[in-house]
Design goal:
Shape: elongated
Largest sheet: 5 strands, mixed
Strand order of the largest sheet: 3-4-6-5-7
Number of helices: 11
Distance between the termini: 40 Å
Strand content: 15-25%
Order of helices and strands: HHEEHEEEEHHHHEHHEEEHEEHEEEE
């Protein structure tokens, strides 16, 4: 996990550096850079799910002893378990918020008055916004029925441009990336840049369609003066954060506003190659996440020379169950596992059982152990190991 976070951090830093270097590029190009970086941050963890080659190094049994006390010791949460739980809670909250937003959209559309069925609606929203993925719809505020034709037309053009550019899908990618990496400040910076570039790219496309900059700027200002913020997952026409910058940009005739489709495709392909390269590197150095007997052949080596065995760095002592203490069960549990390059034990299996409760306690605590991973030619490798846990009564 630390290595994955480091790689994602480098990806985010590279993207932000490219955005700074390309500050004179078109908004569409900058938006694409944000989308590629956020999509890459979602794809990178998938590389860890693909099993890698496992090096089988015969090891002497590692022995630890659990002594029974008058009362069985309670198992406590490991730091890694607490961190994983916090991450899952944060990710779940953001995903549920996204799902709740789409549920609200469905309710608004059902209650809306259609202007053009399946496309344009008057709804209880505070700002023109396009929502939906498979069937995008434009929701206009109820006050828009009193807007001048030119203002209404500018708002519809802006929202239709979001649909044509597939910005709603880009927003889903940004939401998912923020859910996965919610604890990482750089993902929020990229998501904010994506939204800003998205709006300015739409502004450029509206101007390119033939609308006068001064007319469009006046429409933006008029909409902003009567709009209210929205938390719906979509693409609103205006926000309070970047309106001044957008209007200033509209009146700057020196800004490049169009990018050829070929340049956009080349940029996307270049980012895909970078992500694929990082992913392949991860595959080569990642630990095995499944039973080696069910995957690629295991290469057998003996410790010595360029081969080093894993070492236990820290461990949690297992506890007797109350039932095993009462029945006076003692002996050894033998576990087989793969010790990954992350220094953790994976695919733990009981090779020799002692008691169901003690077997489970032994497997649970080994999951909390931390190892110095084995190496081959100085490179960390995933290795097979056997650990013997002794339980004895005092």
């Amino acid at each position: 996990m630390p290595m994955l976070i480091a790689k994602v951090t480098l990806l985010f830093l590279a993207a932000l550096t490219m955005l700074f270097a390309a500050r004179r590029a078109t908004a569409a190009m900058r938006h694409l850079l944000c989308v590629c970086a956020l999509a890459g941050s979602i794809l990178l963890p998938l590389a860890a799910l693909v099993p890698a080659r496992v090096i089988g190094i015969p090891l002497p049994a590692i022995v630890t002893v659990a002594a029974s006390q008058a009362v069985a010791r309670a198992q406590s949460w490991s730091p890694s378990g607490i961190i994983l739980g916090l991450w899952a809670f944060g990710a779940l909250v953001l995903i549920l918020r996204l799902a709740f937003g789409h549920w609200r959209i469905a309710r608004l559309v059902r209650a809306a008055s259609p202007i053009k069925p399946n496309e344009l609606y008057i709804a209880a929203v505070g700002v023109p916004i396009v929502c939906g993925l498979l069937r995008p719809v434009i929701l206009m505020p109820q006050a828009s029925s009193e807007w001048p034709v030119w203002q209404f037309d500018a708002a519809v053009r802006h929202e239709l441009t979001h649909v044509q550019r597939k910005d709603l899908w880009a927003n889903v990618i940004a939401h998912l990336a923020c859910a996965v990496w919610w604890f990482h400040p750089l993902v929020w910076m990229l998501a904010r840049n994506l939204r800003d570039c998205q709006e300015t790219a739409c502004d450029d496309a509206v101007l390119f369609s033939g609308l006068e900059p001064a007319t469009y700027a006046e429409a933006l200002l008029a909409v902003a003066q009567t709009s209210t913020p929205t938390l719906l997952p979509g693409c609103p026409m205006t926000t309070k954060t970047n309106l001044k910058t957008r209007i200033t940009r509209l009146l700057d005739r020196s800004i490049a506003r169009t990018t050829s489709r070929a340049n956009l495709i080349r940029t996307a392909i270049g980012f895909a190659i970078v992500i694929a390269g990082v992913g392949l590197l991860s595959l080569q150095k990642s630990s095995a996440q499944s039973d080696p007997a069910r995957d690629q052949p295991v290469y057998e080596y003996k410790p010595g020379g360029d081969i080093t065995s894993p070492r236990v760095l820290s461990k949690v002592e297992p506890a007797y169950t109350e039932e095993a203490r009462r029945d006076k069960i003692s002996g050894s549990v033998v576990l087989s596992m793969v010790i990954g390059t992350d220094g953790l034990a994976h695919d733990i299996n009981v090779q020799r059982s002692l008691d169901p409760g003690l077997d489970k306690n032994a497997a649970d605590v080994v999951q909390q152990w931390h190892f110095a991973p084995g190496t081959l030619n100085g490179e960390p490798v995933a290795v097979r190991a056997v650990i013997e846990i002794n339980f004895r009564l005092l």
